[in-house]
Amino acid sequence: MARGSAVAWAALGPLLWGCALGLQGGMLYPQESPSRECKELDGLWSFRADFSDNRRRGFEEQWYRRPLWESGPTVDMPVPSSFNDISQDWRLRHFVGWVWYEREVILPERWTQDLRTRVVLRIGSAHSYAIVWVNGVDTLEHEGGYLPFEADISNLVQVGPLPSRLRITIAINNTLTPTTLPPGTIQYLTDTSKYPKGYFVQNTYFDFFNYAGLQRSVLLYTTPTTYIDDITVTTSVEQDSGLVNYQISVKGSNLFKLEVRLLDAENKVVANGTGTQGQLKVPGVSLWWPYLMHERPAYLYSLEVQLTAQTSLGPVSDFYTLPVGIRTVAVTKSQFLINGKPFYFHGVNKHEDADIRGKGFDWPLLVKDFNLLRWLGANAFRTSHYPYAEEVMQMCDRYGIVVIDECPGVGLALPQFFNNVSLHHHMQVMEEVVRRDKNHPAVVMWSVANEPASHLESAGYYLKMVIAHTKSLDPSRPVTFVSNSNYAADKGAPYVDVICLNSYYSWYHDYGHLELIQLQLATQFENWYKKYQKPIIQSEYGAETIAGFHQDPPLMFTEEYQKSLLEQYHLGLDQKRRKYVVGELIWNFADFMTEQWKDRPLKAPTRVLGNKKGIFTRQRQPKSAAFLLRERYWKIANETRYPHSVAKSQCLENSLFT
User: How far apart are CA 315 and CA 311, in angstroms?
Assistant: First the structure.
């Protein structure tokens, strides 16, 4: 990538239409329209875990061929949710293997009788390997959690006079192996004086609980048999005009007509187009700006696409609306630019984790989190360490919260994890991430991994290939991974556009010695920038804090220590943030569940009901550090908006929220 001057990839315009060519098939978010219907299947499903020794009893007895309750006892399981914390059965908490879900659905008669209607089953996320049967027919398989997958089931529901009742069976395996993402290992403990025969444990190499199940919505939706399969949008700015380049994929027929309209926020048409690709010009454009960076942040247009086609069964039409934010992203050797202006990430790392839901999607929790983000004055977060629900990304688009979109490439800690099978799967996962999130203006950078063993030669090649593949899929955004390696030994850093660093001075190193943070942080930044000449984000820093623990002078695990550690980091960050440090993301937004031990450097029971580095508790109540961070983030935001005036210390949420 060129350095020294801003590289505005989006300005390449039509050349970027090829970014979609490497992606086979679309993954548009389901929506209701004049031509589309949705039927959500959230609620209670029948559930059964396979506790047999080999975890394969369900396949041996073919549980999918008849109602699940006929195979043995089932329990009610809410969807979406993680199954681990719902039941009082202790065996489910750490269960590893196959679990089975089932739900019966009654379909509208039109879905089963109108042969011009296409019926699709979509699973928002199943962690980690899933097999789906419809009425006992093997329909779909998918590897990897956190991302949606779907299948056209029209031929299964439009076969008889009234096949309106549908039985959906989903088997999910949460086992992590050296080739899954994230990876893991299975360890068999063979000392029969201590362990029963066949006893095994799942080893993981990341610091969050491996929640599993149907963690996002399951739904059925319809389209016409000739339909809009995918839309790819890139945007750029030319003087005071915005340019929207679109490419549309249609499936089902080659005889069709496409009409494209771009509407502003007041539903006024500002540009028109036709055909599968084109460019729309918007004079006097309203740009999509991050939260707190502009008086009118997060402006969204609507791209309306209407298809008409002639089929052997008669005419059909399809209609889809895509929100579009017009903005540019660029990187120089010392700046991250949005719409040509320097952008400073002041935000958080998060986890989709709360209470008994595990990682199950929850609208009240999502809205609460966004209210806390805005209260905090945060303008960004990283999806540590997996893609979040699509609804989260939509909220970011609406509220102007900038996203570093990270795949589940976490726990790549052992040499055996960098193999060709893993590399192929990792590249497939990045294809799915880009396919799903490519049109979100809030997404400004892709992250392909968190804390891989990037000092290894094999990791260097592996990261080089994944980064290059991601750039080929989407040349319009920079690509990074998050490192905790030594600057001189990191084999992946030469290939990223932005350096992202995790460091925990005075926490995992020199425990309790707050006085060392500024020196060590300055040394870190100077070494990395001198070697790579790229902008740097402090992507993680923080301290474990038990809410309500107090000690002065500060001691580790108290609220005072967390505040003092943050203050020392902020002094170090302020020395570099007007030079080449372009962001800071606290670890973590809220406390989250982990295993009962920390895996590195030694496996030991050092977690007390999870990771407590949050500035909010798991129940979203603030610790003392939240108020410190709020004061800082609003001060930085005001400096950005009023660079030539005295920085204001008060939080202006009343005026900026409206």
Answer: 6
The pLDDT tens digits of the residues spanning 482-512 come to 999 999 999 999 999 999 999 999 999 999 9
Residues forming the active site: 451
Cα-trace Rg, the chain: 25
The predicted model gives 362-374 an average pLDDT of 95
Q: Decide the pairing of beta strands 402-406 and 380-382.
A: parallel
Per DSSP, the residues of 86-119 read TSS-HHHHT--SEEEEEEEEEPPHHHHH-TTEEE
Can you give the pTM of this predicted structure? 0.93
Would you state the structure tokens that stand for residue 185, as one six-digit string? 């290992």
Residue 187 has pLDDT above 70, yes or no: yes
Residue 481 has pLDDT above 70, yes or no: yes
pLDDT in tens, 86-109: 999 999 999 999 999 999 999 999
Cα distance between the two ends of the chain: 39
Q: Are 405 and 443 in contact (CB under 8 A)?
A: yes
Name the residue type at position 508: Y
644, 650, 653, 654 alpha-carbon torsion, rounded to 10°: -100
The answer to whether the beta carbons of residues 475 and 438 sit under 8 Å apart is no
Q: Return the amino acid letter for 173.
A: N
Peptide bond into 34 cis (omega under 30): no
Token pair listed for 306: 């209407």
Q: Round to whole Å and give the CA distance between 381 and 584.
A: 10
Q: Note whether 579 and 533 are within 8 A (CB).
A: no
